[in-house]
Amino acid sequence: MTQIMIEKDLVLFNELVELLLEDELVNPVVEPTPPEDVVDVFDLGLSEFGSSEESFRKILKNLALQTPKTASKRFFNQLFGGRQGKAILGDLLSVMLNNSMYTYKVAGPQVGVEKEVLAECAKMIGYDSNFGGTFPAGGSMSNFMAMIMARDHFNKRIKHDGVAQKLIAYASEISHYSNKKNASFAGIGRNNVRIISCNDRGEMIPSELDKMIQEDLSKGYSPFYVTATAGTTVVGSYDDIEALRKVTDKYNIWLHVDGAYGGAAFFSKKYKHLLNGVEKADSFSFNAHKMLGTPLTCSLLFAKDKKDLTYSFDNAADYLYQTSDDDYNLGKTSLQCGRRNDALKFWTLWKSIGTAGLREIVDQLFHLANTARNYVDQHPDYQLYTFEDSLSIGFNYKGIDPRLLCSDLYESGELMVGYGQFKDEEFVRLISVNANFEDQDYLNFFSILEKHVEQNSERFVNISSLKS
Ligand SMILES: *Cc1c(COP(=O)(O)O)cnc(C)c1O
Fold it and tell me: Fewest beta carbons within 10 Å, which of 88, 100, 310, 466?
């Protein structure tokens, strides 16, 4: 009975997928529904009795087709997008298998899958076999685990006694917002994250970091953690890891490299130099669900020394750890207890296209970013705000308010793209994270945007003409 039902459900699933794939070609941007109306409009209400099969199908179909289409040719809005078929296959399989990754007893060979992906990445970034690694529930969580390791490394008593010192963390002015949240979770406090300014290429200024650390030391505080960013969220800049390592070495401070967005550049021969020095960092993380296009979430965290990961995250649990060597009981180094299998989708992708295929994905993303940046740079109606070797292209068009332009493009069902800020400037933030795109998709982006402005010129008040 159950068997037949699952087979029927999978047939329905396949039907929905087919519909979605057809629909996103003709309706690439879903018209937004006011959020307060969605329960009514999509018949989401839950009740005592289940729906008839027919109405269930109808509701599900409508829901699927009216959900924002992150794999369409018009989606440039966030740091993920597109689809890698083999990764989707792996993720679907992990749902069917439904293992939890904490022990070898219940995850079996999936433990080997996770360990192999981690080991191969660790080798590529230059960590030796003492490394430790895990798949946290996202980049923010990877940063959190890194901060906890740094805290416990700084003072081995904290995990037992709590935080008593004034611990200070450092991050650049454009580092990810999770750093402040994590500081509050870790008992450090948001006010104890020092914000270090960046140069005009969006890189943390090492001498400013040094100055700030000295100031904190002179007050008797305890600097313990610096996070460098490999691909900042808004402008895609890469901090100079080597230079930051020199400063952190001087004071014996933990250096983490947050590569959630741009860290996968190490797969590219041409761009791995952006992460020079990462092999000297105490920890490193990146999201395969951003640059590499696996389904959400797929985040990897590495500690240079496995002992740090174990010290912070191991906990005896007799009910759980009943067999096998701890090296194969992955719960000994994870934040969660039950943990979904995020490794399989990365492994199926990697196994099928090889390291060469992953390298092509990364190179294609930088290529597309160059195409878009060159277009903006050479077109007199555009102003460019970002720099080379970045996957983010910040621009404004004819001085139009970027907020107005982005929301207008979205509401009219043309394009999904967001805006960002850097150094008091606000701009449209175009992203390159979908390796299925081609040059033409970016050129289409610009022509849709230009046509939209031309046809709706009355709505766009030119800021620069207002200013003058
Ligand atoms: C996206 C991002 C994160 C957060 O990753 P999530 O998986 O969304 O939690 C952290 N750091 C940087 C630099 C990011 O761009």
Answer: 466
